[in-house]
TrEMBL record:
<dbReference type="Pfam" id="PF00128">
    <property type="entry name" value="Alpha-amylase"/>
</dbReference>
<dbReference type="InterPro" id="IPR013780">
    <property type="entry name" value="Glyco_hydro_b"/>
</dbReference>
<keyword id="KW-0320">Glycogen biosynthesis</keyword>
<dbReference type="InterPro" id="IPR006048">
    <property type="entry name" value="A-amylase/branching_C"/>
</dbReference>
<feature type="active site" description="Proton donor">
    <location>
        <position position="353"/>
    </location>
</feature>
<dbReference type="InterPro" id="IPR006047">
    <property type="entry name" value="GH13_cat_dom"/>
</dbReference>
<feature type="active site" description="Nucleophile">
    <location>
        <position position="310"/>
    </location>
</feature>
<comment type="function">
    <text>Catalyzes the formation of the alpha-1,6-glucosidic linkages in glycogen by scission of a 1,4-alpha-linked oligosaccharide from growing alpha-1,4-glucan chains and the subsequent attachment of the oligosaccharide to the alpha-1,6 position.</text>
</comment>
<dbReference type="Pfam" id="PF02922">
    <property type="entry name" value="CBM_48"/>
</dbReference>
<dbReference type="GO" id="GO:0043169">
    <property type="term" value="F:cation binding"/>
</dbReference>
<protein>
    <recommendedName>
        <fullName>1,4-alpha-glucan branching enzyme</fullName>
        <ecNumber>2.4.1.18</ecNumber>
    </recommendedName>
</protein>
<dbReference type="GO" id="GO:0005829">
    <property type="term" value="C:cytosol"/>
</dbReference>
<dbReference type="GO" id="GO:0004553">
    <property type="term" value="F:hydrolase activity, hydrolyzing O-glycosyl compounds"/>
</dbReference>
<keyword id="KW-0321">Glycogen metabolism</keyword>
<dbReference type="InterPro" id="IPR013783">
    <property type="entry name" value="Ig-like_fold"/>
</dbReference>
<dbReference type="InterPro" id="IPR037439">
    <property type="entry name" value="Branching_enzy"/>
</dbReference>
<dbReference type="Pfam" id="PF02806">
    <property type="entry name" value="Alpha-amylase_C"/>
</dbReference>
Amino acid sequence: MEFLLGTWTEERLQAFHEGRMVDGYLYFGAHAFGEETTFSVWAPEIEGIDVVCVDPATEDTSTYPLERHPHDASIWGVSIPENLEGQLYEYALRTPRGEVLWKSDPYARQSEKRPFTKSIVSGPGEYTWPPEVLKRKQTINDKHLERAMAIYEVHIGTWRRKENGEFYTYREIADELIPYVIDMGFTHIEILPITEHPLDESWGYQTTGYFSPTGRYGTADDLKYFVTACTEHGLGLILDWVPGHFCVDQHGLANFNGQLLYEEQREERRMNPDWGTLNFDINKGEVVSFILSSAHYWLEEFKFDGYRMDALVNLLFIPNIKERPHNTEGADFLRKLTASLKLHYPEKLLIAEDAWHYPKVTHPVESGGVGFDYKWNFGWMHDTLEYMKTPPAERSKAHGKMNFSMVYQYEERYQVIFSHDTVADGRKSLLNKLPGTREERFLQLRLLFGFWMAHPGKKLLFMGQEFGHFEEWEFQPELDWASLEDPQHKGIAEFMKELLAFYQNEKAFYELDDERDGFMWLDADNHEQSVATFIRRGFLPEDECIVLCNFSEHHYGSFHVGVPHKGSYEEIFSTDSAKFGGTSAGLRQAAETLDVPCDNQDFSLKLDLPPFTISIWKKRKDGSD
């Protein structure tokens, strides 16, 4: 009783019930310190609850009854005068109907590896964060709006596997993944959810352990090693995290006390038929405190550099209604969540995934926005891929799909993405979506990546696509690394290295991503030739680049493009370079402007534009107006 009164003060109880608690993991769950282990759980309207512990070494079982808090019948706890670190445990809840429900701990910080479902008593851990890492964490996202950002999206369990098919641990994957990502030229890693989940096929999105790193890849200390290694090498590390729904498995949150507790009370909003998950009751203070505490936990305990938040469509829009009306409750909840995170961790990135057309997702909460830093540009992704899947001879009819994104580009801050959803569940890999012969597919894949890089917005690419993975992604095998022995796949990998290096070196492609001054169409509507031309700009006039995108199979030997300044221009990048497997021996050194107006510009260039090619030009520094 003394433990309950000391831990669950009146102030903490009030904060928890009102949805204001952000550190519930410090008080709920199992905690082993010194010669004491405490357990605490929220379980209203039950008759009693025991914690049943199993010593994994001896398989001996011990049962400890929990007591009610004397001033709050929904909070239960017990203090045991013994250090039980490492023991397995679960709660046995007795309902008024005489049922006994066996549940894992909602606030467990360690769990058994699937298919087992017990929680594990965790201690304080042995990992010590290096001071230089903690210092660098404060600045790793500095001025991110003005910097290049290329995110490599990874599913840890299928990026690579050991020869015997087993998973790499967090420590082992760090030693393999980090050098690869740096060599390729990415600036950040984003990992698919590592919150504990029972089913591999869910990719981590059907969570049962909101405070527990999955045991598939090792311990919490192993994960901290991985986070540290990323920081030491200058890589940002973003966690894919699910704020809105949870797994239906009966050992988890579903019907936790024999009734609807964590899940949405309204039947029509409760279930997600497409995912087989349950939506949280975001109108219940205790559930809000649970979610807020999970959000704070991963940033505080593991020092991630931000979140990509999944499935916001069922928070920003009312679930299970085809017309998708705005969900005021869900938007207000997200504002509370983002405001809380930004208050405590202003340096962390918050990225919204499936937000559709909801307005002001990346605007500050204080000005009526939802408070995210970036929003995934699903519209650009879907339109671009639909356009690229169209046979080249028919692209003139679909030209609007290629240029439509610029109509809304500056309403939000966007990331342009080719994510895991793009290349799974029967959707084919990026390479396999493209029409034509094998050679034409590789040409168009370079074209697609070039357009991705040149379009305004920070970049994200799912693993394997950087070398033209032929098959779509599946959750079981590792990536097809053997395909890199093929010259065309190796050529795509080498191309991606150079593309990302070019992206980071040319400020015009990232400094003004979210400013109208950073982009100008020269000709957006050349559907007859399936060509788009535009200008990208940085802060300085000399960083200006001219971009020509030929989405057709035709070679235009004398293509005219307008330019704003007179002088000598040089080609600084081409997706058609022979070193990537293209047809051009090298970059053309220079082209002089003509005093011929074009594209509403006073001057123009006459250029050779190969099929399926992006060609980028820049005024030479020694040129004269």
